[in-house]
Write a structure and sequence with these properties.
With 330 residues, the protein is an alpha+beta fold. It folds into 2 domains: 139 residues, Endonuclease, Chain A (2-Layer Sandwich); 157 residues, no CATH class. Helix content is 33%, strand content 26%. The protein is built from 9 helices and 16 strands. It has an 8-stranded mixed beta sheet, sandwiched between helices. A 6-stranded mixed beta sheet has the order 10-13-12-11-9-16. Strand 3, helix 3 and strand 4 form a beta-alpha-beta unit. Helix 3 runs antiparallel to helix 5. The longest helix has 24 residues. The chain starts with a strand and ends in a 7-residue tail after the last helix. About 2% of the residues have low confidence. One of its GO terms (molecular function) is catalytic activity. It comes from Paraburkholderia steynii. It holds the Pfam family PLDc_2. This is PLD-like domain-containing protein. InterPro entries: PLD-like_dom, PLipase_D/transphosphatidylase.
């Protein structure tokens, strides 16, 4: 039986819910996979391609929490096959929310297609094929997951930058697009102290007197008493008002060469510089974009603050996840 995107998800669930052991060879695994395979009341084997950048390592971590699911990986796997005792599905869909969307015309997911197989000879051939691959596959180690995390981030970042160069606006960003992408955000309410402002001014003056070139930091922001700033991506800053609303204070890039500090009551306090950026990894980020993001995060501002403290930051993906936001605008 031919399967389209409209029925692919339901057919996969029907196979998983059948009570039969499931053997899946699906190259790329993403968000939502645990909610699919975790439904099975029988044993599940998952063979994926973990180390090519296409599998979300957090999805694998979620699956590892299920006692009845065994996972292995094979570097050159590209198949998408799910096998039960009495039926199997061969198709194009990966095990993820995007791969198994029921209505790709609404703007997320792909037009997938597949074939439902239930004749015994084909099932026997598929099982023999699977057993051979399973025997050659490797167990998933902690080092594998660390490597997969880096590759996942690199691939998503490259795709995100490419979209930005094509003219995308930040208001159109989707949460899945920034998964693993080095974009960070913070919420604060206080200003830099006079001591921090003086330390920053002294730092710039010292550089000028030494004859060194002062990095271009105009306009600049200083962060007083923070333990660190992100060095691999921009920081989107928001001030929280007394009524809980958020106001954007722009996007900033950390200038590590200007690090300084001051002493107060026997303690050293870091002073970090950052310069303003007009684009976020090539995506246009103007006042309207920032206002949309502020509005999307307002309801979760206290939860976000609890996550990163008053002088810290978290990834934009984590902030959107906490806020339950998939898109900034429809």
């Amino acid at each position: 039986m031919f399967i389209t995107a409209a029925t692919y998800h339901d057919q996969v669930l029907k196979l998983v819910d059948s009570g039969e052991p499931v053997s899946a060879a699906v190259a790329f695994v993403g968000q939502g996979c645990d909610e699919i395979l975790g439904r099975s009341t029988a044993s599940v084997r998952l063979l994926c391609n973990l180390l090519s950048g296409g599998t979300n390592p957090r999805a694998i971590q979620a699956l590892k929490a299920y006692r009845g699911i065994e996972i292995r990986h094979l570097r050159n796997l590209h198949a998408k096959v799910i096998i039960g005792d009495t039926s199997a599905i061969i198709g194009s869909a990966n095990l993820s929310e995007n791969g198994l969307t029921t209505n790709p015309d609404m703007g997320s997911g792909w037009h997938e297609a597949g074939w439902l197989v239930n004749d015994r000879d084909s099932l026997r051939d598929m099982d023999a094929w699977y057993q051979k691959l399973w025997a050659a596959a490797l167990q998933v180690t902690d080092d594998d997951l660390k490597q997969a995390e880096a590759m996942w981030g690199d691939q998503n970042t490259a795709a995100f930058v490419s979209s930005g160069r094509s003219g995308a606006r930040f208001a159109d960003v989707h949460r899945q697009q920034v998964d693993g992408v080095p974009i960070y955000m913070c919420i604060y309410s206080d200003d830099a102290s006079e001591r921090a402002v003086k330390a920053a001014s002294t730092k710039l003056s010292d550089i000028e007197r030494s004859g060194s070139v002062v990095p271009s930091v105009s306009p600049y922001e200083i962060f007083d008493g923070w333990s660190s700033l992100p060095s691999d991506g921009p920081l989107l800053c928001f001030r929280i008002r007394a009524n809980g609303s958020l106001v954007s204070e722009g996007a900033w890039k950390y200038i590590s060469e200007l690090d300084t500090s001051y002493s107060h009551r026997g303690q050293r306090h870091n002073v970090f510089f950052a310069s303003r950026v007009r684009k976020v990894l090539e995506w246009k980020y103007g006042p309207a974009d920032a206002k949309l993001l502020a509005s999307a995060l307002e309801g979760a501002s206290e939860s976000i603050l609890a996550k990163h403290d008053r002088k810290g930051y978290i990834s934009l993906h984590e902030a959107l996840t906490i806020a339950g936001v998939d898109r900034l605008r429809d």
